[in-house]
Write a structure and sequence with these properties.
This protein has 416 residues and is an alpha/beta fold. It is 30% helix and 16% strand. The protein has 2 domains: 3-40, no CATH class; 73-415, Rossmann fold. The longest helix has 24 residues, at 14-37.
């Protein structure tokens, strides 16, 4: 025992001192027992065993322990590890749902290292995506991704991850209005994407003709969209990039009845009101035990090459490695918007809704190498086609690639 601690007690109180020695011995014994029961894995991650019993791989005991470990682990804090043995999970040429905008290999990208990076959380392992298990989870169910082209990017990834487990004759895809729907017939499962880039109604709601400079939103109206996915079992939302301007015009009437009078509102306030409309609708219409809800945090862009020491005009072109600077955060990513979403989700959780944030932002911030850049089909006007570097796509993501990890995170949440 520390001598300074002993001096606190007068010498005549030898009985107390003796008791303290006994207590010290007991504490040492307890500490030795805990050390015996505790092991440290290779990553420095502590695991408590039960009397040294581990169970066989694949046993219920092991699975319960792994689930418990995942629940206490921050899946979004980690690093990218190069793994050309087990990744990618699928090949670009084997998935018919990699559209030409995302088909970087098809359009001439020779460096394929972007396909081989695995996300490694600091204190646990992210479960490998099992397409067959995912399809069983979706049997008789409907999953809908609702949002913009980044959510369509994630939808494409999800379909690619499960497609190889379904015979070609037992799968189908249909396009109807704002919907693209993939059906796994044998499983009676649906994986759909619904175009709604601002979640609420806007003049950018057409799934094809939505490049409109003068953006107008109806921030108090969502029913037109929501009626299409109200009966879903799993809903995955996103909305971010289409809000990125100083102000937006707001219409308080239907577009059909509008007389051309609009109110111009600062973007952040506008976004906050739209999220309130979205969350209010969920409270009133979503089945609290049937439907699982997810909101995917902002997907970062990499248009500022000067942030990682390259010429500003380069954007994300010729990038072949991630950013390895821990905590890197691009200037174009606005955390204020995600705090608005987070506050809304905390409120929804308090009201009994089963909703989570998929916090993909930080892990995606590191991946300046993962965008199509020059390698993908371009549909822009002549000035864009004539200046490919200036208009390089540093917003969307090549497939296979980063969105596969987003779906691994979604997969982990669904099986927790």
């Amino acid at each position: 025992m520390n001598s300074k601690l002993i001096k606190v007690f007068p010498s005549w109180k030898w009985g107390i001192k003796r008791a303290l020695h006994s207590l010290e011995a007991l504490l040492i014994l307890i500490l030795l027992i805990l050390i015996h029961q505790t092991i440290v894995d290779d990553d420095g991650d502590w695991r408590l065993t039960s009397g040294g019993r581990r169970g066989n791989n694949g046993s219920d005991e092991t699975e319960v322990k792994e689930h418990g470990k995942l629940k206490s682990c921050d899946l979004f804090s980690g690093k990218w590890v190069y793994d050309n043995v087990s990744y990618p999970i699928y090949k670009e040429q084997d998935c018919s749902f990699v559209n030409d905008q995302l088909a970087c290999q098809k359009f001439g990208r020779g460096d394929l290292d972007y396909q081989h990076w695995r996300w490694q959380p600091h204190r646990c392992d992210l479960p490998r995506f099992n397409g067959e298990k995912m399809l069983e989870k979706l049997r008789g169910k409907r999953m809908v991704f609702v949002g913009d082209s980044l959510n369509r990017n994630q939808w494409s990834s999800m379909v690619c991850l499960v497609q190889s487990f379904i015979p070609p004759t037992l799968q189908s895809v249909h396009v109807n209005g704002n919907f693209i729907t993939f059906n796994a017939i044998e499983y009676n499962a649906t994986i759909a994407f619904y175009w709604s880039p601002l979640l609420v109604e806007s003049n950018s709601d057409d799934p094809i003709n939505h490049r409109i400079a003068d953006r107008i939103v109806r921030i108090d109206s969502i029913e037109k969209h929501a009626a299409n996915w109200a009966d879903s079992d799993i809903l995955v939302f996103n909305s971010y990039l289409w809000w990125k301007r100083a102000t937006l015009k707001v219409s308080w009437e239907t577009f059909e009845k509008s007389n051309g009078t609009y109110e111009e509102i600062e973007m952040l306030r506008c976004f906050e009101m739209a999220i309130k409309t979205w969350s209010t609708w969920l409270q009133s219409h979503i089945h609290r035990t049937k439907t699982r809800l997810f909101f995917v945090s902002l997907s970062p862009t990499h248009n500022r090459a000067e942030e990682w020491g390259k010429p500003p005009t380069q954007k994300c072109t010729n990038e072949t490695d991630p950013i390895f600077r821990d905590g890197y955060w691009g200037l174009d990513s606005d955390p204020r918007m995600m705090r608005i979403v987070e506050d809304a989700i905390i409120d929804l959780q308090s009201k009994g809704l089963n909703i989570e944030i998929l916090n993909i932002t930080q892990l995606s911030e590191y991946r300046k190498d993962g965008h199509p850049s020059l390698y993908g089909k371009k549909w822009g006007p002549p000035e864009e086609l004539a200046n490919p570097i200036r208009f390089a796509d540093c917003t969307h993501w090549c497939l296979p690639g980063v969105p596969d990890v987003w779906n691994q995170l979604l997969y982990a949440y669904l099986f927790l």
